[in-house]
Write a structure and sequence with these properties.
This protein is of the alpha+beta class. Helices cover about 35% and strands about 15% of the residues. β11 and β12 form a beta hairpin. It is globular and about 55 Å long.
Length: about 290
């Protein structure tokens, strides 16, 4: 259900019945969880960003970037520095917006795994949703590696089985072949037509995604891959507030912890598990110097 300024939202005909925005609204209205917005601008921004996530996913699918494990990642050296861990670090002489666009423009020069793909899609979608100058202010220190991201994206997990177009889901493959660990799962974006895009597998429905992963299981395994009941989302409201800031806004923030785990295709939940381990270790050091 959608609430706007405390009142139940009524579709006003702002979007045509066959538009992506209308599909998203319908799914929100069917959701038992209440989606609450202070203003129409806030709701409209989320719809725009979700639509851009979908379009950025389709653009990646139509491009020529290839799937690769972290250790075999590849990028355009004119925009990014490839680290030993397989991450892409933004060059000092390059604008963040130009570097993100290049992944789509010169896609044949790039290879990365599916978690990194989601972060690229997120940045590309946000770039299309806010002022470019603001984007370059917010994301000056881009480093693409697995789920590592700037805190302003506000990435978080929600336990639910009601997915919305633009959500990121995880197809878990618990019995993956140890010789091909990058098929431990697939991060995928739910598209407006009910199919999913996962970098490495492509576009397909849930059954097709699971079938693709099942082909990569350990020999003799009877444990099927499955779709987890959780979604990963951006903080749409947080980003909506940024979209309304003046051009001269200066953002001072603490850089997120970077952890090179060397595991391709992990879920955001697993990435959080690793981060929490690091935070706990830091707290232990501070408590017992």
């Amino acid at each position: 259900m959608i609430q706007l300024a405390g009142m139940q939202f009524q579709q006003s005909g702002m979007w045509t019945s066959d538009s992506i925005e209308n599909v998203i609204i319908q799914r929100m209205q069917e959701d038992p969880i209440v989606h609450s917005y202070q203003s129409m601008d806030e709701l409209s921004f989320e719809l725009k960003l979700r639509k851009n996530i979908i379009e950025s996913s389709r653009s990646m699918y139509q491009g020529n970037s290839q799937f690769a494990s972290l250790e075999n990642s590849r990028c355009n050296p004119q925009y990014w520095l490839l680290t030993d861990a397989g991450g892409f670090r933004l060059r000092d002489d390059v604008k963040p917006s130009d570097a993100i666009r290049d992944i789509y423009k010169n896609s044949s020069l790039y290879e990365f795994e599916c978690a990194t793909a989601i972060i690229i899609i997120y940045y590309h979608a946000v770039l299309k949703s806010i002022d470019e100058h603001l984007f370059n202010q917010l994301f000056q220190n881009l480093y693409l590696y697995s789920w590592h991201s700037e805190s302003d994206l506000g990435i978080h997990d929600i336990k639910t089985s009601h997915f919305l177009p633009g959500d990121v889901v995880y197809f878990n493959n618990p019995d993956f072949n140890l010789e091909t660990p990058w098929w431990r799962g697939e991060n995928a974006v739910l598209l407006e037509d009910g199919t999913y895009f996962g970098h490495g597998i492509g576009i397909g429905n849930a059954k097709q995604m699971i079938q693709a992963l099942n082909k990569t299981r350990m020999p003799g395994s009877n444990q099927s891959a499955y779709l987890e009941n959780s979604v990963t989302r951006l903080s749409f409201k947080h980003l909506a507030k940024y979209s309304m800031l003046p051009r001269g806004y200066i953002n001072h923030k603490i850089q997120p912890i970077l952890f090179h785990h060397n595991e391709s295709s992990i879920s955001y939940d697993r990435y959080l598990y690793y981060l929490n381990m690091i935070y706990n270790q830091i707290n232990d050091i501070n408590l017992f110097p």
